[in-house]
Structures are given as structure tokens and as C-alpha cells.
Queue: 2 jobs
Job 1
Amino acid sequence: MDQRKRLVLKQIVSRYIKSGEPVSSRTLLEEYGLGVSSATIRNDMRYLEEQGYIAKPYCSAGRVPTEKGYRFFVDWLLDLSDLAKEARLHDQHALIEYYRFPRQELERLLRKTAFLLANVTGLVGFVLSPRLEETELEQITLTPLGPRQLLVVLVSNLGLVESQVLEAQFTPAELAEISALLNERLRGKPLKEIRQFFELEEEGWIEPALRNSLAILGEVLARESRQRLYIEGILSLLESVLEGRDQGDRLGVIKLLSDERRFAQFLSEVAREGEVRVLIGRENPLPELQGWSVITMGYGYGVLGGLGPLRMDYSKAFSTTLYVGNRLRAILSSAERKEVDN
Amino acid sequence: MDQRKRLVLKQIVSRYIKSGEPVSSRTLLEEYGLGVSSATIRNDMRYLEEQGYIAKPYCSAGRVPTEKGYRFFVDWLLDLSDLAKEARLHDQHALIEYYRFPRQELERLLRKTAFLLANVTGLVGFVLSPRLEETELEQITLTPLGPRQLLVVLVSNLGLVESQVLEAQFTPAELAEISALLNERLRGKPLKEIRQFFELEEEGWIEPALRNSLAILGEVLARESRQRLYIEGILSLLESVLEGRDQGDRLGVIKLLSDERRFAQFLSEVAREGEVRVLIGRENPLPELQGWSVITMGYGYGVLGGLGPLRMDYSKAFSTTLYVGNRLRAILSSAERKEVDN
DNA sequence: TTTAGCATTCGCTCCAGTTGACTGCTAAGA
DNA sequence: TCTTAGCAGTCAACTGGAGCGAATGCTAAA
């Protein structure tokens, strides 16, 4: 494909993303002025159509990018100058300024991150939290509540705080002892490892006195191993859904987003660590996502990104996801380092 | 209005709720057979229309209930036999069986309640949590996290567990002392009162040693005094939204539901304690709720209910809200009693 | 390889005609 | 006075055809 044809494709995609209407050869001529006539552009368009990058909604209409066209656009034609906006984003948008890290309030941080993604990109923004079991234990507190119940509070080094109520019978003295033991022994260990210890009861290091308390911890871990999902900006998605013509299952996406587990599962499978990945339309493994695009990035502990219609601003979405992802990783890893310093 | 006219109105409303289509005199004749001719029904309809209970979408169409019609229906024509279903609901639907009370997991309980409401009524179900400050303190735990931070965990008698991280400098020994003091002094007191104590620093009962720790508690209370809102079943609302013709601001409701504070505020203002209240269309103070109906009930600690289109099954919604509301109140007050027993 | 010009295609809009479902009204009957 | 049968009137929804206009495809010449 020669240079001009790539340019024509790029202009068609850009224009269509802006206006949402099929792009004609004349529009291209008038708005971008390639220095050739509309007939020439038409010839190029015919080529692009033969190759499957663009299509006509009907015979005498302008052209619209196909999924293959978007894919080519994302792979080869993304404006690198937009990526430079990353930096400007940071400086200009006060939005990001509020985005500092109040330690230990991970929930709030992640929610804000999702909110930020949604607001900057205009898409649905999502953040999948770190798995509790993949962080390290910083503190465990056991408090009696009445005679038969026990409040367990787990704090991990990233600032996840989890509380659980368990049925258990201990005297306060026993509890204090167990609590001290647990903290002494397990502090700084990855929760995953602790869980394994718990499962491999046979190993010599477990003293009988610890066994019960480990059982408690194991129970908490088992209950709380799932990841949380923060989603913001569904409203913008709804607007896209309402715009669209009746293509059958319009609510599928919304249903998917309501099903936390399924969507979280999808994200974990799809995302790549430290790298922005764009899935366009049918490239998505889930049938509900036909007709939608998903952008993901693994930020080291979990996954974040955006979801929106095929006709989205890929440049902005890509660069924002990359920027926010890197930023979140930095914040979390500095929190971690801080911890190690102590 | 004579008996037959009321019956005609009731049948029109019932029929329209079922089918969603304007109800004609012939339909009424064929389906409910009042023992009079369609001409007579038409005469009654004309009366009902003059009085503003029903209306025609256009000249030669069947009749549709107006908001005034729905109001009359809810006030006078609600089928009391449907209220008897309350009991059956409890027995038959396994749904409700899972609805037991795992103490201390208030969050989960309330979320399930919202889910239950949504599933049984087919509307959006919501539950506004009790205010933290209106419950009693059961337990407060202070744990140091590193040299400068402090994890505060508050447990209230209803099972609300709140954790907060504060910046503060204490030695572990000081913390233990403060914690013990706080628990001894404040346990069983309403959080609201505690807060007032904190504000009225002058009062003699505060020993200087306690002042700092009270300041901490005060800070937590100030941050966490807002109520949580659990909403389930937005999907069903979306379906209603998609069905509807373009009446301008179709997304208003969704926007409102996304704005937790505003909606919570609305609920607090509107709900009545221990009583089911139905607000139909323009009876709602909020402009976004034109065209929607809201059912609320104060369950003693907070508010719960449902939201849906004007054309909803008021009988089912009413009885379900009443039943679930009473049930939740019973569960929570028994939790409270249990506490006192200890 | 590019361009100008022209025929062609086809969605969109408007309009007129038809159909069918209701209502409103009136006059007769109970 | 209330009820009923019958009939005329009304209007949304559907149908098909005409005209319009925005684009394209093609061809022949530059």
C-alpha cells in the first residue's frame, strides 16, 4: 500500500471518528486537500475497499472504516504526536492533579483512577484491583466481638484493608497471643505464600499453637481472594447504545458490565502486562463485545483501561490508558517501596 | 364515582400494566365481561376521561391511564389479595430463603436486599444504609501502621464495619491505652452522641488524656457519616428506557441513579417511616423522575424501595416493598437486641 | 498515472391512498 | 334515567411511487 493510500485511510478513519458519518471523496478533498482530485481519491478508496479496510453502508454512500481498517489505523497510523499529549495531560489537566496518593486508601485511589479514565477518554473506564493474595501482609488484627465472634482485619502492603467476621471461640488472652504470633511470623510475606503454608499443614514450621490461627487466616483469604472491579462512565456508553440502530442485542454490553466476575475474568485473560492492548470488535473473545472496542493495560498489580464503540478516539484512549497505567503502577510501587523502607 | 366506573378504571389500569397498549372498550368487554355492552363502557370511559383519570394518545385510540388514574388505582383499587401474597412470597420463593442474617456483614445483607427487591419486583431495587452515626459503638480498634499512620476500625452494633487510615503519631503503648479507654467509656453509646461529646469539648467529663483520641474518633465520624446506597437491577430500567419513544431527556433517571448523594438525599426527604409511599410521575420533586414512579419505605434505620416506569405492577411493588421492609427492620432490630443481651 | 465528465445507484423524504381500530353520537328500547 | 345498537367520523399505521441528491464507477483523454 503506497503512502497516499495510507493517508487516505487515515483521513477516512479520523474523519469518521469525528463526525460519525460516511466519508465521501469530496469531503476528503475539501477538508484535507491531498493535492489530487476527488477521482484519484476515489480510485484509492476502491483499492482500500477491495482490501477490506473500508466499506460502504450502501451503494452510493461514502466510506466507513471496517474493523480491519480500525486495526490498521491503530497498528500503523496512530498519531504519535497524540502520545506526546500524555505529558501535556499531566501538566494541563487539573483533573490529574487531584490524583495524588493518600496512602492506605487504595479503594478510593482505584475508584478515582477509573473515574479519571472515563472522564478523559469519554469511554467507560475500568480498573481491576490487585488480588489480595498477590500482595504482602502488613498487619493482621484480631478483635473479639461478643463471646463467639471475631473481627479479622487484614492490611496488605498496597493498602488494601479487608475486614471479615468469623465464628470462633477464643479468650481475649489467646487472641492477643495468636495475633502477636501471626504478625511476627507472617509480616512482609506474600499472602499467596501464606496461603500455601496454610494448605501444606504437614511442613515442620507450623507449631501446633499456630494451626488454629492459620486456619482463620486461610478462611479469610479464601473468601477475599477475588478482585474488585471499579467501573465509571457507563452513562457515556448508554449514549452510544441509544444512538445505535437496532442491532439486536444492544444491552449485551451493559449486562456484561453488570456481571463483575465475568468481566474481570475477561480482563485478566486479555490484558498484557505493561503494554496497551486494543481489541477491536470481533477480536474480542466475548460475543457481547461485538461492535465494541476494549483497551486494556496491565499496570503490574491489576488491569485498567476503557471500553467504547468501534468509532472511538483511539489516539486519545491509547495514550490516556498508557499514561494512567504507568502512573498508577508508579504510585503503587512507590507505596510498596515505602513499606520496605520501614 | 359509582362502582362500575371504578371497576372500569381498575380494569383499564390492570390491562394497560400488563399489555402496554391502549385499552379499548371492546377489549374490556371481551376480557373482563362486565355484563354491559361496549357502548356503556364507552360512556363510563368518557366520564373517566372528563375527570382526568384516563386519556387517549390520539382521537380514535383506546385509553391509557393518566398519572391521576394511577394515583386513584394505588389509593383505592390496589388488590388486597395481592398483599396476601406477602406471606406466600416468604414461603414459596426460595429467593427469600437465602435471606438470612450473617451477623456483622451488614454490607452483604443490604446488597442482597436490594437484589431481592429488584428481582421480585422487576424494578430497580435500592437500599439506603443506616447512618453510621445513628447506630451504637460496639468496638473501636486502633492499630499502628508504620511510624506515622494509624488504622482505625469502628464496629457498630448493627454490624457496620468501617476502617480508616489516619495520620497520627502514638507509641504502641499509648495506643493500647487510648483504645482501652475509648472502648470502656464509649461502648454502647450512640455514635451521634459521641460526636456531640467530641464537639462539646468544654464539658467536664473529658479528661485531657482522652482529648486527642476523641479527636481521632471525631475525624472518622466526620468522614464516614454519609450513607451508602445499594442499587440493583438497573438493567430492567434500561429496557424501559430503550422501549420509550424519544421524550427528550431519557437518560435523566440513569444520571440521577449514578449520583449517589443526590438520590440518597431525595430518598431521605421523601420516605416515611414504616410506611410504603408511592410517588407517581410528577408527584416526584425531582424533574428527572417525571415519567417514573418511585416506591419507598423507611425500615427504621434507612430507606428501601423500587423505581420503575409509570406503567409498573403497583400491587406487586407495593406488597414486596412492605414485606421486605418489615423483614429487614426485624432482622436489624433483632441484631440490636442480641447486642444488648450480651 | 491522473483527471474530467457523465451515467448510475440507492437511501431518504414526501405524499396520497388504503386499512382498520376505536370513539362519539344519536335514537330507540328497557 | 340508564342501556344498547348502529353508524359516521377520526386518525395512526402501512404501502407504494415519485423526486431528490449525495456518492460512486467507469471511460476516455491528458
Job 2
Amino acid sequence: MSLYKIEINDFFTSAFSVDCVIFGYEDGEIKALLIQRGMEPFKHFWAIPGDLVYPNEDLPDAASRILHELTGLSDVEMHQSHTFGSPERHPQGRVITIAYFALIRITDFEIKASSWAEKAQWVSLNEIPALAFDHSTILSSTYELLKQKLTYEPICFELLPERFTLNELQQLYEYAFNTIMDKANFRKKIKPLHLTPLNERQKNVKHRPAKLFKFDQSEYLKSVQDDNYQFKM
Amino acid sequence: MSLYKIEINDFFTSAFSVDCVIFGYEDGEIKALLIQRGMEPFKHFWAIPGDLVYPNEDLPDAASRILHELTGLSDVEMHQSHTFGSPERHPQGRVITIAYFALIRITDFEIKASSWAEKAQWVSLNEIPALAFDHSTILSSTYELLKQKLTYEPICFELLPERFTLNELQQLYEYAFNTIMDKANFRKKIKPLHLTPLNERQKNVKHRPAKLFKFDQSEYLKSVQDDNYQFKM
DNA sequence: GCAAAAGTGTTTGGATTACACCCATGC
DNA sequence: GCATGGGTGTAATCCAAACACTTTTGC
């Protein structure tokens, strides 16, 4: 006799999906790449891109596949978010979903069509419409996680263009944390990151152009290792 | 024709489980409640208590059920940890597992037998044996998460007895963060928690007995709400 | 010259650290 | 009395916030 109240095979009747929240930064706002669903259920609803996971596919691989299908990008770091598994969350059966998120540079690629998406579009986090399934919850709790990571890991550079001004960096944090920061103090705070100054300046501004910088990941990792450095915004 | 390379029903062939890391604190050490498996696979191996999730069961409910079966405890807060889903992690099929963790007071209950456990035992985190499946990974990454939560949320009181001395509290942190702290400075740091002093003292110690305190959750939540207080160790 | 933003230095007050000292209890 | 840890005050130090000021560019 089985230990369970149901047959063991009745457990193998669920599917799982990976939903991939893709964040970008544009016009001073953090945005998410949403798709409009091309099929039932929730046809025509806006949703976080996601897909069922193949029986032999690892979870982060599925998340990367979704990102690749939509953007053509590869080798982007995927961060695991929460897992959502309420029995009622999917109308067609028990489907639990593992949320991942990725940070990308909006200008680095073009949105591609995808098998499950009528269209895809960047949407400012202030203007998110009603989403399919429990995707509103997934998006907001994943954004909370992103903000937390922004505090303790220098992942802001995954959102900014490769060359950026210090003010652009500051504005990203001001947007995410919904605060205003002092310019001088902000620059003191990021001193230990040793951002690489470039021999290049901002163009087409009608004031003194700011210097451009880039982030040196390997030097950052080195100071974590060697000096036990802990980034903190 | 299906959009997928396999039949849609072939996705509904996986199961998922919840593994529940139960942490306790005893003799100055953080311990995990492990079970010895009574069935294949990994029969006789030590493992994190876990179980398949019933088709109509919500994930936190499954985690609570596991805790209840083993300890008789109910109404314990469950914290979601990471999800592990490598295709090879379970020898009998695709089983992904969502890890949860709970913090409990070791003295508050007695370990019960359980359908899937030969025996259960508290094991110090310094003495964890080889575990079944990928449970070593699950345990260590969940402990990292616990340490992180200990820094930003006053969940230490879920591990300590209801009445505790300030030194016991300090020792818990010293163990978790593997540091030594200054007594006077530690007490200044926890001032804003407004721990309730009791008219009671330590007993059976061969020195001046310390005052006992308890934690007032509702007052803590009030100062979070009213004064935007953020706990930080 | 003026507007606008880049970029930097100084002061100040609050928090953290190090450390010293007294207190209460058991034996 | 003394050993042991309980309990608290203070000075030194560091750090972050506030703010002022100079510089460079476009028009």
C-alpha cells in the first residue's frame, strides 16, 4: 500500500514554468519587457514572458532560452526570484512557476517576435496594466528583490549603457530608491568601486559635458576577494 | 500542431516537492532537524525533511504540514528559500523542490515519528553528514539566507526561548556571524527594539544572575509602521 | 556674460568603537 | 574575599549628511 492518499503517479501530473522578468532602464525609468499573449488562456493579456520547462531542461537554461527567443541575447546572468505555486494560479492545471529576472541594456538588441507573443514592449514600472495569471504579484515581488540586490551588489551596471556618466548612475539609484541624493556624497560613496574614467565626454548637451566612466567587473571581484570589500549603496 | 517539440501532456509528467529546513538553537549552536530516510531512494541517508506536494495543496501549506508531522507544531512562519530543479537531482524522475525554512524553539516540542522518517535528530551545522539528493546544497544555501535575514529582521527571537538574557541573544549573533561583539555596544545596538524587561532572573548560575527579557512583536511592528524603523544587526 | 550642470572641498553632528569601571552573586 | 560574568559610562574615532564653492561648456 502506498504511503500517500493518492497514487504515486498522480503526483506526476503537474507542469512547471519559468517566468522571466526582464528589466531595462531607459529615459530615467526602470522598465519591464512584457508580452501580449497570443494564445489562451489570457489571450491578448499582457504578461511576463515565460514558458513551460522541457522535461530535460534545467531551470536557469529555460530562463535564458526565454530571454534569447525574445531578445536574441545570450550569456546574460539570470537571478532566481521566488516560486509561485498556488493551486488556482493556472486555469488549465497545476502549474507552478519559478520566477527569474535578468537585467539588460535596452539599446543592445532588438525585440524579436516569439512563438507565444503577439507583441512585446517595454513598459515603465509606473504604468503596468493588469497582467495575466498572478503576474502582477510576480512582477512586484521580483522588483522588490531587484531593489534589494541593487543595495548590496553593483548590478546597476547591467542596466546602464557600458559608458555612463556619474549622474546617470546616481539617477538610476534615485529612481529605484525613490530618493534624492547629494551629488558630492554620492561620489564619495562609490569611490571604492574605482570606476574607470574614459577619455570621453558626453555629447550634445548644452552645458559642461560630463566625463564618461565604465565599470570594471574584474577589479571589483578582486577587491571583494582581496580586501573583503562589500558594496553597499 | 503544437508549438512545442513534445506533446503538451508530456509536460505534465513532473512532480514537485517541498523541503523544509527546520532550524533550532541549542547549547550555543544553530542546528537543523534532519531525518534518516526510511525508503528508497537514498534509504538510510540523512536528509532534510520534505515531501511531494499534493495536487491541490499550496506550497506553504505543504511546508507547514511537514513541520507539523515531525514536530506537532502549527502556526509557525514559513520562509521561502530557493528552488532546485536540476533534471538529474532526483533518480526517479523530474522532481523539482521548493525549499522553505522555519525557525523553532527546540524545547517547545517533542520530535514525532513520521511516515517517511526512520528517525529524526537535531544536528549541529558544524557536523552535517553527507545528505541525500542535493540536500547539502539546499541546506547550505538556505543557511546563508537565514544569516541574511538575521541581519535585517529580528527573527532571532523565533530561535531563542521566550525569556532570554541579553547575553544569550548576543551569543546567537556571535555564532551566526562568527564574530565577537562588545557587550556594551551590542546593548546599545538593540536599544531601539525595546525588549521588555521581566521581573525575573537567570537561575542556577554561579555568578550574578542576568535579567530576563522578552521580545514584543507588536511593539516592533508598530515602530516599523510609525517611525519607519529598520532593524539592522 | 549667463544659465546649467559638472565637479570638489569643508564643516558638523551622530553613530560606532574601544575600553574602563562598578555591581551582584555563589562559593 | 575572590572569581565570574552582569551591567553601564565615556572618550576617541569614523562616517555620512549638509552645504558651499569653483569649473567648464553652450548660447
